[in-house]
Structure formats: C-alpha cells, structure tokens
Write a structure and sequence with these properties.
Largest sheet: 4 strands, mixed
Bound molecules: FE2/S2 (inorganic) cluster
Number of domains: 2
Order of helices and strands: HHHHEHHEEEH
CATH class of the largest domain: Alpha Beta
Structural class: alpha+beta
Number of helices: 7
Strand content: 5-15%
Number of strands: 4
CATH superfamily of the largest domain: Glutaredoxin
Helix content: 40-55%
CATH topology of the largest domain: Glutaredoxin
CATH architecture of the largest domain: 3-Layer(aba) Sandwich
Distance between the termini: 33 Å
C-alpha cells in the first residue's frame, strides 16, 4: 500500500497517514464514510490493513467498516490499474451489444469485469448510463468517451494503451519504432 495523491504525506508510512486521517475526522462511527473516502483518495483503494487500523483507532468493529465499504459503490477494496475502462451497460448500450464489448475488453486486457489485470495496467468495470445513449455502445476509456465501440475497436484501444505504457517505461520515453503502434 502506498500513498499516491497526497504529496504532503508521502514521506510518512501508510499507518502514520491513516492515523492522521482518522484523527482529523474525529474518532466516532459517524466519521467512517469521510475517513474511508480520504483513505481511498490517498491510496487509490482501501486495503485490509487500513480497515484494521481504523478499527483499532475508533473501536468500530472491522466487520462494520467492511459493511460500509462494500455497501457503497464508491469504495474500492482492491488497487486500481493504471487505466480504467468503464463499459456502459445502460439500456441503450445493453441493446447495442455492451456484453460483447465487455467480453472483448476482458479478452484484450486479461482483466475480469470488476477487477484489474495481472500486469496492473487495466481495471475493467461495468457502469450505468454515461449519458450519450444515441452513441451506444459507449465506453469511457482512460477518461475519454468512445462512441459506437466495436470488439475490434476495444482491442485497438487496449493495444494503443499498452504501447503508450511501454513507451513511458522505456529509458528515453520512446518506443523502439519512435511512434506508437496501433
Ligand atoms: S445507456 Fe449507455 S450511454 Fe446511455
């Protein structure tokens, strides 16, 4: 578990960061949701160690904290990948083949819907209507909305993202061919 958003606290270890968050929000049951929100904002997800620590500090049973964390869709109990892929499964997108699109992303990334790929690159999720039904099926891929997505397009998007990630990792930030393969 490592802090990712809060640069002011990166020098501290995760337990110290959690302690500071809990103290800031007061040590009572009513503060559980804001505490979980801030921990998720800081670390990207809520790790089991974080729940144990909140419980130790507040006296709220771990099972109660888990109940809250699993009840609200906003909370993640697993780390997210570098890229998030949100496939719309609202009615229009469902009728336009969202299931096939999710399958194509699962195949291309190796991630199951609701999970993250083993290489840590992709988190794949199913979401409700994204508000542009006339463009179904719609996918939000790395914070960009893509319209009328096909299985081939899904594969191409994943391939391009992998190439971009590899380019970022390469010593000079350049791919072997000097440009992105799509
Ligand atoms: S149902 Fe997918 S954008 Fe509305």
């Amino acid at each position: 578990m490592s802090a990712r958003d809060n640069t002011a606290v990166t020098a501290k270890n995760p337990i110290e960061i959690i302690d500071a968050i809990v103290r800031k929000h007061s040590v009572n049951r009513g503060a559980t949701i804001p505490i979980l929100q801030e921990i998720q904002k800081t670390f990207g997800y809520i790790a089991p160690e974080a729940i144990t620590r909140i419980s130790d500090l507040t006296g709220i049973p771990e099972s109660d904290i888990y109940s809250i964390a699993t009840f609200y869709a906003q909370f993640r109990l697993q780390p997210v990948g570098k890229y998030t892929i949100s496939v719309c499964h609202g009615t229009a997108c469902h009728l336009a083949g969202a299931e096939k699109i999710s399958d194509a992303f699962e195949h291309a990334t190796g991630a199951k819907t609701g999970g993250t790929s083993e290489d840590g690159l992709f988190t794949l999720e199913k979401v409700a209507c994204l508000g542009c039904c006339s463009l179904a099926p719609v996918v939000n891929f790395i914070n960009e909305t893509h319209a009328r997505v096909t299985p081939d397009k899904a594969q191409a998007l994943v391939k391009a993202a992998r190439a971009a990630a590899a380019k970022e990792k390469s010593p000079k930030g350049e791919s072997q061919h000097g440009k992105q393969d799509v």
